[in-house]
TrEMBL record, chain A:
Keyword tags: 2Fe-2S, Iron, Iron-sulfur, Metal-binding, Oxidoreductase
Pfam family, one: Fer2
GO-annotated molecular function: 2 iron, 2 sulfur cluster binding; metal ion binding; oxidoreductase activity
Lineage top rank: taxon: Bacteria
Entry annotated with the keyword Amino-acid biosynthesis: no
InterPro entries, per the entry: 2Fe-2S-bd, 2Fe-2S-bd_dom_sf, 2Fe-2S_ferredoxin-like_sf, 2Fe-2S_ferredoxin-type, 2Fe2S_fd_BS, Beta-grasp_dom_sf, Diverse_Oxidoreductases
Entry keyword NAD: no
Name under which the protein is recorded: (2Fe-2S)-binding protein
From TrEMBL, chain B:
Protein name per its UniProtKB record: Xanthine dehydrogenase family protein molybdopterin-binding subunit
Organism: Thetidibacter halocola
Entry's Gene Ontology molecular function annotations: iron ion binding; oxidoreductase activity
Tree of life domain: Bacteria
InterPro entries: Ald_Oxase/Xan_DH_a/b (IPR000674), Ald_Oxase/Xan_DH_a/b_sf (IPR036856), Ald_Oxase/xanthine_DH-like (IPR016208), AldOxase/xan_DH_MoCoBD1 (IPR008274), AldOxase/xan_DH_MoCoBD2 (IPR046867), AldOxase/xan_DH_Mopterin-bd_sf (IPR037165)
SMART domains: Ald_Xan_dh_C
Length: 160, 748
């Protein structure tokens, strides 16, 4: 099957790649662009390990075709820190030991960032329901929820 | 809470950032599927759609003719003559005469892209003659059950058993019948648990390369690179030392990544494709259909109890299927089942049974959750009948140091009583419950494990230290090993770098399994550091012109051991390291052993549930884990193990389970249908770390990874009975089953 030329923006940078029309955005990020921070845990949109922001919307990149990224803007885990400065969510995940194996972590961080951008002061229940599409098998979610709540407080300017 | 018989530590017990944290929050950490290599091909596996079928013919010609396909392998490409476990591994890697379960690999292809490989896999034509199958353990033992493999039984199996029973296991002590005669209440029940999957979020992935010279390399997500090396070498017929295996970061394992599945196929494909590296990444449905879930179990338990709660005797018969190969953890299940209790008499027997399901693998405290579900459920029901507080019963019968374990050996220092005391003291136990709510309590046990361990430590020129370990870091073991090494050397935590290394760098290491990484690699790292300290003291002594015995190591520096040793200012590790080249060369320490002194681990969980009487849905209101860690080196990651174990146990109890259709096919091979707990299913999980130090470890570590998955199964069943009056004896306790039990309890 002949490939399609795709021009898009990833983490603010213009990129282009050739995509087989059957390839997912996740495949293209990982195998065409070398951005392997987004993970494939299921390929069916159930685990959230591939979460990215596509034109401002949180999506499972395994459910989006690579060719659909044409002319859009994609944000991935690789764009979350600004140079040496980690996003508060990233810092709080380390501080709270909110990761064990770390495989689900990129997707959860991307999803949590999307939450805090729409709801800067979520309740615990809101965090739990927002992240219900991101499976973590190691932590039992406890420390993840605490890290997200703590990062939200910091972003609101409240002392931890 | 902490029963501290040790001095205060500078670093042990603190909560610094983990060394691999930055890589893991930025997406930089490289997992199994994240590696590529020049000239790389992609592999795909052809799998049986049948639960049991004779493979009449495999025609690979169409696949081979597809442009971009570089290799196709079938069993004919693997060596013959393997026996025992090696044969099992090879047969599971690629079916021989018969496909033994839905998802069993029958061929594999390698091509220049993943899409071409998948297309080629579809073009491999396999003629099957479908055979009768069986997937349930009790059905597999019935006289009319299809025979999965003639002659697979080992000599332990009594005459007259069905050929699917491949191992028989029994132990006893005391007079069980006399015990039952003394009891005021004797109860007997049968329990069933379904197979569950470890459910690690990272599917298996590897990148293997093998040349015609028999030399190979592999990058793979695994809990144990030496296990992968030995098993792959056997399956493809090369020498173990010629295969160099590098572990990637690992996206969860829980026991399921201690063995091989498609890894040898990457090597066999690579060899056939002229040595080009071949990457194989499993899909989720491949993971669920064809890697190693845990066994399913059918268990009869009988217990005698006096009016005051004293247990007089216990009897258990466990039947487990672990797929089409021997290896169900029926022995472990029986060992653990009565472990928290003083048992005057026990009689246990177990049957390991073949069925047309994937070959089971270890899953967090293998066997222990099933045994606990049966025994802890029955004990709770008996307490209820006799009007005894289940905490009182647990305390009255609790094993202590010097007691004989139900399975034979005498316990050394153990912390069950301390765990039960801490549980009883926890505020969660006095929170009042409302309508349709109930509280359940259960205990759990795991042996913990030592295992072959090899660690190497080297002092750098600036006095910092690097530690090479062979146990992949799944949940913070780099941090715990760095803490112990830095504590021992007397240097900052940040001055130690712990590297998980490839098979070429160390002697054989067992995997990160059995809750052993922080115990065994940690113990070996401390030994290695002490070896280096001795050498550094010797170097300081030589410079000062005094005897090495007159030098001691304090706070990261050598100093004279007393006023008689001479007056010299302390010589720091950085000073000693800075001149190592002129004082005798590199300074390092090594340690190789199978460490003894393993400390057993007990836990007790308390769960509050609310049951919806309309739907049978069970909501976890609050959850408490109390467990003896021996010593929590990094308490945050100990809590994480407790919480994660509890969450997996909750999933096993309420939702998870393999569902096989009449056709023997797995009906729920995706996360949508194999539903693991999500964030909105769970509350915060409270933890109490009890510390009864293990005298067999320099810092008192017991190992904390596994016990936590055991109590949730019975604790939740006990809580459901408390809430509804209905007793569930079969897992998972999903809404239809709970609803049926409530209706039956009302009717009965």
């Amino acid at each position: 099957m002949s490939k399609i030329h795709v021009t898009t923006k990833v983490n603010g940078d213009p990129v282009e790649f050739l995509a087989d029309p059957r390839e997912t955005l996740l495949d293209c990020l990982r195998d065409r662009l070398g951005l392997t921070g987004s993970k494939e845990g299921c390929g069916t949109g159930d685990c959230g390990a591939c979460s990215v922001i596509l034109d401002g919307r949180l999506v499972c990149s395994c459910l989006v075709l690579g060719v659909e990224a044409q002319g859009k803007a994609v944000e991935t885990i690789e764009g979350m820190a600004q140079g040496e400065d980690l996003h508060p969510l990233q810092r709080k995940f380390i501080e709270h030991a909110a990761l064990q194996c770390g495989f689900c972590t990129p997707g959860i961080l991307v999803a949590a960032k999307a939450l805090l951008e729409t709801n800067p002061d979520p309740t615990e229940t809101e965090v739990r329901y927002w992240l219900a599409g991101n499976l973590c098998r190691c932590t039992g979610y406890d420390k993840i929820i605490r890290a997200v709540m703590d990062a939200a407080a910091e972003l609101r300017g409240e002392a931890a | 809470m902490a029963k501290d018989e040790y001095r205060e530590f500078r670093l042990v017990g603190t909560r610094p950032d983990r060394p691999d944290g930055l890589d893991k929050v930025t997406g930089r950490a490289r997992y199994g599927a994240d590696m590529t290599a020049p000239g790389m091909l992609w592999g795909a596996v052809v799998r049986s759609p049948h639960a049991h079928a004779r493979i009449v013919k495999i025609d690979t010609s169409k696949a081979e003719a597809l442009e971009g396909v570089k290799a196709v392998v079938t069993r004919a490409d693997l060596p013959t003559g393997l026996t025992g476990e090696d044969w099992d591994l090879q047969e599971n890697t690629l079916a021989g005469e018969r496909a033994l379960y839905d998802g069993h690999a029958v061929a594999a292809v390698a091509a220049t892209s993943a899409l071409i490989a998948q297309e080629a896999a579809r073009l491999v034509e396999v003629d099957y003659e479908v055979l009768p199958h069986v997937t349930d353990v009790d059905a597999a033992m019935a006289p009319d059950a299809p025979v999965i493999r003639e002659g697979a039984a080992d000599p332990t199996v009594p005459e007259g058993m069905h050929p699917n029973v491949v191992k028989y296991f029994a132990f006893d002590h005391g007079d069980v019948e006399a015990g039952f005669a003394q009891a005021d209440l004797v109860m007997e029940r049968t329990y069933k648990t379904e197979a569950t999957h470890q459910g690690y979020i990272e599917p298996h992935a590897c990148l293997g390369q093998l040349g015609s010279d028999g030399k190979g390399e592999m990058w793979v997500c695994t809990q144990g690179q030496w296990f992968i090396r030995r098993m792959c070498a056997a399956v493809v017929g090369i020498e173990a030392a010629q295969l160099r295996v590098t572990p990637s970061e690992i996206g969860g394992g829980f026991g399921g990544k201690t063995t091989i599945f498609m890894e040898p196929l990457s090597l066999a494909l690579s060899r056939k494709a002229g040595g080009r590296p071949v990457k194989i990444v499993m899909s989720r449905s491949e993971v669920l259909r064809a890697t190693g879930p845990t066994a399913s179990a059918s268990m009869d338990v009988k217990i005698g109890m006096k009016k005051d709660g004293t247990i007089t005797a216990g009897k258990a018969t466990f039947r487990m299927q672990g797929g089409a190969f021997p290896g169900a953890p029926v022995d472990m299940a029986l060992y653990c089942a009565f472990a928290p209790y003083k048992m005057p008499a026990v009689e246990c027997e177990g049957f390991d049974v073949l069925a047309n399901r994937p070959k089971c693998a270890a899953y967090r405290a293998p066997g222990s959750p099933m045994g606990a579900f049966a025994v802890e459920s029955l004990l709770d029901e008996m307490c209820r009948k006799l009007g005894i507080d289940p905490m009182d019963m647990r305390m009255k019968n609790a094993v202590r140091e010097g007691d004989r374990a139900a399975y034979g050996p005498k316990f050394g220092s153990i912390g069950l009583v301390e765990v039960l005391e801490a549980t009883r003291a926890h505020p969660n136990l006095s929170i009042p419950l409302g309508l349709n709510q109930g509280r359940g309590i259960a205990s759990g046990y795991w042996f913990n494990h030592g295992g072959e361990t090899s660690v190497s430590m080297a002092i750098s020129e600036d006095g910092t230290a690097q530690v090479s370990v062979g146990t992949p870091d799944i949940g913070g073991s780099r941090a715990s090993i760095a803490l112990m090494t830095a504590e021992t050397l007397g240097i900052p935590y940040e001055d130690v770098r712990v590297n998980v290394v490839e098979t070429g760098a160390l002697g054989v290491n067992e995997p990160t399994h059995g809750s052993r990484a922080t115990f065994a690699s940690g113990k070996a790292a401390v030994e290695a550091a002490q070896h280096a300290i001795k050498e550094m003291c010797r170097r300081a002594a030589a410079e000062w012109g005094i005897e090495p015995e007159a030098v001691e190591w304090v706070d990261g520096a050598a100093q004279p051991a007393g006023p008689n040793a001479g007056k010299f200012p302390p010589m720091t590790i950085a000073e000693i390291a800075g001149k190592m080249g002129s004082t005798g060369g590199p300074i390092s320490g090594h340690h190789e052993s199978v460490p003894g002194g393993v400390g057993e681990s007990f836990g007790c969980h308390v769960v509050d549930v609310e049951v919806d009487p309309e739907t049978g849905g069970v909501k976890i209101l609050r959850y408490l884990v109390v467990q003896d860690a021996g010593r929590a080196i990094h308490p945050s990651y100990v809590e994480g193990q407790y919480q994660g174990g509890a969450a997996q146990g909750i999933g096993w109890a309420l939702n998870e389970g393999y569902i096989y259709g009449e056709d023997g096919r797995l009906q729920n091979p995706v996360f949508l249908d194999y539903r693991v707990p999500v964030a909105s299913d769970l509350p915060m999980i409270d933890t109490v770390i009890v510390e009864v130090p293990n005298p067999g470890h320099p810092y008192g570590v017991r190992g904390v990874g596994e016990t936590g998955i055991t109590p949730p199964l019975p604790a939740i069943a006990n809580a459901i009975q408390a809430a509804t009056g209905a007793r569930l004896t079969e897992l998972p306790m999903n809404p239809p089953r709970v609803l049926a039990a409530i209706k039956a309890a009302k009717a009965g």
